[in-house]
Amino acid sequence: MSSKLSGALISTLSAHIDLSKSRLETLAGLIICLVNARTVNLSHVAAQFSGTAQTSSSYRRLQRFFQYVRLDEDWLALAVIKLLNIQGPWILCLDRTNWKIGRRDVNILMLAVVTRRVRIPLMWTMLDKQGSSNSAERIALMQRYLDIFGSRSIRWFLADREFIGPEWIGFLLENKVLFAIRIKAKMYVTFDDGRTYLLKSLLRKRVMKAVLENRAGRFSTMPANAGTPLRFAAKRLKDGELLIIVTNANPGKALRIYKQRWFIECLFGDSKTRGLNMEDTRMTQLGKLSVLIAIITLAMVWAYACAKAAKGSRPIKRAKHGYLRKSWFRTGFDQLRNWIFLDPDKAAAIWTSLWPKHKTTLEFNRVV
């Protein structure tokens, strides 16, 4: 690990994060070494640390970092937007990722911003349980976003079938959030003529798909005065399954924009097997995991900046099957690893160019 590269990270982070010199050195080393090692497993990260200290000592140092450092959970959202210079309004995606560590469930409800090239976490909630989130948890996460950015910053809000419910939909309507959310075919809908239908039965005939788009209604579990009428759109996928969308906007447009919900699945792939192997962690405490996600996000921001530096506005080539040879993230991630090994000055310059020189609000706090 280049001392000059580490020094560049420390000097920029010190102006934005209230940590001691020792903790800043550890944080800088974490970001660089988890990119080098392509894993968040602390044993492998510790082996990447340079200097005279034994690997076991570096490992204990990393453990102490996660033990004593905590994160203000919302600081990174504004930082990510500024660092990557993502122009709003944005498309937001909500989804959940989970895995097991022994018998313990790691369950993360994540809100991400997605663009044609970038998919990056903004906010998240560590769910201390297994299974789906409830409406209260989704509303709390979305309210944190709205308190910082407001509803006008949202171009579209996209979510899968898990994220339904009358209270949740009512919250989005009340806050004037433009959304496209997939729903289940077995749901009952009451239309503006007062009739209630099971969506699956309504869509048995092909002609009813066009009729569905021209009708406004609500879920049968929602009150009649629930606000802006909901609209619906549907199509049959190649595997024969029905894709049904509920929206408070143009249903045809909502159906087309919903395709971009897949980007958050790509984000999970970038943070896992295609990138930093987030599931390799053995940490189960929620506070520690939240700090880890923040560090992963900083590494991803760095990778995206490297992709922009390496490719500029040039598109990534497509293979014969029509798909990109590499994602924008993987292009930057591979380039960043190459520069860390062979041209650390270049890697340092990219990192330094991201951060404003003036001091901003404190982001990390020590555990008392």
Secondary-structure-based class equals alpha+beta
- The proportion of residues forming helix, as a percent range, comes to 40-55%
Q: Separation of termini?
A: 31 Å
User: Helix-strand pattern, N to C?
Assistant: HHHHEHEEEHEHEEEHHEEEHHHHHE
* Spatial strand order of the main sheet: 4-3-2-5-6-11-10-9-7-8
For the largest beta-sheet, the strand count, sense and barrel status come to:
10 strands, mixed
Number of helices: 14
Number of strands: 12
**In terms of per-residue confidence, which ranges show pLDDT below 50 for 5 or more consecutive residues?**
360-368
Shape: elongated
**Count of folded domains:** 2
Compact description:
With 368 residues, the chain is of the alpha+beta class. The chain is built from 14 helices and twelve strands.
Descriptive account of the structure:
The protein has helices at about 5-15, 20-35, 40-45, 55-70, 75-85, 135-150, 165-175, 200, 205-215, 250-255, 260-270, 285-310, 330-340, 345-355; strands at about 70, 90-100, 105-115, 120-125, 155-160, 180-185, 190, 195-200, 215-220, 230-235, 240-245, 365. By secondary structure, the chain is of the alpha+beta class. The chain folds into 2 domains: about 5-70 and about 300-365, no CATH class; about 75-265, no CATH class. Strands 4-3-2-5-6-11-10-9-7-8 form a 10-stranded mixed beta sheet, sandwiched between helices. Helix 1 (about 5-15) packs parallel to helix 14, helix 2 (about 20-35) packs across helix 12 (about 285-310) and helix 13 (about 330-340) crosses helix 14. The longest helix is centred in the last third of the chain and has 26 residues, at about 285-310. The model is unreliable at about 360-368 (pLDDT under 50).
